[in-house]
Amino acid sequence: MDGLLALYIFMLAAFTGYEIIAKVPVILHTPLMSGSNFIHGVVVVGAMIVLGMAETVLQQAIGFFAVALGAANAAGGYVVTERMLAMFKKKEGGQ
Amino acid sequence: MSAPFYVQGAWFVGALLFIFGLKGMSSPASARKGIVIAGYGMLLAIAATFVIPGLQNLGLMALALVLGGGGAWVSAKKVKMTDMPQMVAIYNGMGGGAAAAIAAVEFAKGEMHGLVAATLATLGALIGAVSFTGSCVAWAKLQGVLKKAHRLPAQNAVNVLLAVIAVGLGAAVIVLAPQQPELVIAFFVVALVLGLIVTLPIGGADMPVVISLFNAFTGLAVGFEGYVLGNPALIIAGIVVGAAGTLLTQLMAKAMNRPISNILFTPLAASGPGEAISGTMKEVGPIDAAAMMRYASKVIIVPGYGMAVAHAQHKVWEMTSILEEAGVEVKFAIHPVAGRMPGHMNVLLAEAGVPYDKIFDLEEINGEFGQADVALIIGANDVVNPTARTDKTSPIYGMPILNADMAQNVIVIKRGKGTGYSGVENALFYTDNCRMLYGDAQPMAGEIIQQLKAMG
Predict the structure, then answer these.
(1) pLDDT tens-place string over residues B31-49
(2) Is residue B36 within 8 angstroms of chain A, CB to CB?
(3) In this complex, do A42 and B238 lie within 8 Å of one another by their Cβ atoms?
(4) Of B192, B210, B305, B394, which is most buried with the most CB atoms under 10 A?
């Protein structure tokens, strides 16, 4: 990828992340940390590409490890966040 | 690696859904919709990756997805709400490990495209590896597997030395990687050890900030590896999380009055000398405690992690309802770091059915303690310690606290006479208007409920 183009993406993404969090009420800090934890679970996509192009047994083994870890990050992060936020939903139904 | 257009498009939509999802999660009304949107983004990104033409090892890939994803899914479903923070830590560590492993495969292939890619791959590997072992330590501490803070002699010097070695090895790897597999292995070993050594001396009370920091780290690592793989979705998701996580870490550290540098380099002393505390602790029984609250006009409840581990929140809410029926005004006061993370206590109270409009932040409620007849403190300690206001030698000096000591009467439900998470004696317990109700929060709340019912 073009180095300078990547730098633009880095900058805009950093700004986006900062802006999103800046106006968050304290009660959502924990769910939001958990939610952002889920989102970096997208690393599993990178791990899949690496495993998909692995040639030696060593590369396959490390790639397998990477995919399993990434998938655990994504799946676990999703469930934990969803469970926390489900409570907020129940509350609103009651009001 | 260039994926076909439809895969690139799917990744783009995935990244878009992540940002929308995160935006949704930043407001209580749309929070749950937000995580579901982000979840669809993830499914789309994974499904698209699966159909890239020419990818090998698809069976292995499916097996890894099922093992890792399925295992985490089941364990995340089973875990109790009180244990959520350590689960966030461990899943975060796994993400960091995955990022480091991606870099490891790239090194093993020995085909880095240019200096920038090699540098970012190495940096991502270093950060990811530190986040991996560091998060494992954080999990072990919060889970209670590791109880003590292990502190090496000259800890700070060891930290710095290890970091310098790791960076030095990383620089060597960037230049020499393809020819020197031993160098790569040494680099990873040092990076993993660095994560362990840095995190081990940090006390459990500071762990939320550390977990948040590692969360930001993993985001950065994922973003860097995304560059190496030429995948904008990884870059965007990783860097967004890196920036958001950094800000969140700062907010938490501020709420605890613990600069991040202090947490990492000079961990809280087990027990500072502090000023001598005079007076004695005075015990009270559940009958008197019930009567004090039943005939009060205003009660403020300060819940802490002790209430959560005792699973007393449902009983406390039942007690609150009885008091309200008797005409007592009851409010909940939440310290920013009550529970194990900011907002954790709100989640636990919401689980028990306590409505939002009874829950108040430190700034909102601190002025009201003066008008309260009773402040009921359940399993909280450091967050109501008045020495934080007065005693400059105390390790928790300067931390914002709830002014529970200003209430007419203070009742403290506590298991024993021990100190709080910080290890500091609590002067509040020795004041004249404070009564101690010793016991587990759940049976004690139950007894108070019975007494309240008997009073009619």
Answers:
(1) 889 999 999 999 999 999 9
(2) yes
(3) yes
(4) B210
